[in-house]
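In this section we walk through a basic example: taking a raw amino acid sequence and producing a predicted 3D structure, encoded as discrete structure tokens. The instruction is simple. Fold the sequence below.
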Amino acid sequence: MLGMTAVPEDHVAPAHPARVNDYDSLAEAYSVANEGGIQNAYYERPAILALAGEVAGRRILDAGCGSGPLFAELRDRGAVVTGVDASPGMLGVARRRLGDGAELQVADLRDPLPFPDNAFDDVIASLVLHYLEDWAPTLAELRRVLRTGGRLIVSVDHPFAIYAMHRMAGQKPHYLATYNWTEEWTMGGRVVPMSFWNRPLHAMTDSFTAAGFRISVISEPQPVPAARERFPDDFRALSQSPSFLFFVLETD
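The resulting token sequence is shown next.
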């Protein structure tokens, strides 16, 4: 998740309002921000890779792969990676990064996945579940495509970070509720409304166990040390107040 982005005061609304979560229109600019920003490049992605550990030879589904930076890292480590994303625009950027041989497909995680049962050793859902109101059908599909003994590795917006952000903005959210929230992202000269679902920790863990997963890790990692000099203020903030929450879930 990127920080809340203010709309310039001289901004003129387009004749046709932007589509919610329109990653097609943000694809190029978002890819650049994802590549070098502290939240993704120095915090979330390294944490996911550390949780994944040794992946050489493992069949991995990058569920919500976006422009492909995590896919590339996993492939460089010897994994056999397949990527899916709901945005054709993001997959176009990923294709240029990864080459024509990369296994990439357009797929919405709210729908059945185009893979057989037991197709993967690991599924990685990096910063994607918080876009979904109902996790049950998505988790059921991710469980279906995982082999017995496979892992689902998840990162999501930290529920208390979102709750605290809204409290500081003068709102009165109910932490124990699952609620929708929106903000506008300004990137590449475009303003796009983004919609997310915040849910308390117990709702997340209940959803995982109801889908047949065993929770093996809940993690609140630190940004990598290389971010300290490049982003001193953000590094200090993230070291004291995490933005994301991470899980490793296993199948029996």
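Looking at the output, two observations stand out. Residues 28 and 227 are 23 Å apart (CA to CA). Residues 1-15 have pLDDT under 50 and may be disordered. In the next section we compare this with other chains.
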